[in-house]
Amino acid sequence: MRRLSKKSSKLTSTVPLDSGLLLLRLGLGLPMLVHHGLPYLTHYEQEAVRFLPLFGLDARTTLALTIVAEVGAAFLIVVGLFTRLASLVMAFTMAVAFVMVHGASFQGEQSGELAFVYLVGASALGIMGSGRFSWDQHHSN
Question: H or E stretch including 45?
Fold first, then answer.
């Protein structure tokens, strides 16, 4: 039986973790980008009329900042570039959405359940980082 070197053993032992982080990045980033961020971007004028002004900012500014998070941060999460920073931006945006927009509710027509799921996932990525299958890791070596 062939023995694995410590380096080889360490490399193979991280594959499940790195694969899970890749799956988490794709599972959070792609739906956020495609189903939330890009529709806000492509229908900016229509969305700005019904968007909430928050923290003393007008609705257009709030929408623009949301687009930065839901398009820019989501894209960075997908490719694994500046993942921790992008995850922080997404987590903050989802915390605001969950509390301010959905009233921290998990039930009813205004349920914030999805915002909460994005918040937890983005927070996990912020803690764990992007994993080996990312631009962050590719360029750090």
Answer: helix 44-50
Of the candidates 120, 122, 140, 124, which has an alpha carbon nearest to the alpha carbon of residue 132?
Answer: 140
**Per the domain annotation, does 35 fall within a domain?**
yes
Tens digit of each residue's pLDDT (9 = 90 or more) over 5-54: 555 455 557 999 999 999 999 999 999 999 999 999 999 999 999 999 99
Q: Do 63 and 44 contact (CB within 8 A), yes or no?
A: yes
DSSP 50: H
The answer to whether residues 126 and 88 touch, using CB atoms and an 8 Å cutoff, is yes
Q: Tally the residues of the chain.
A: 141
6 falls within a domain: no
**Which residues have C-beta within 8 Å of that of residue 90, sequence separation ≥ 6?**
28, 32, 69, 70, 73, 74, 77, 118, 122
The number of folded domains in the chain is 1
How far, CA to CA in Å, does 47 sit from each of 55, 61, 116, 135? 18, 12, 22, 33
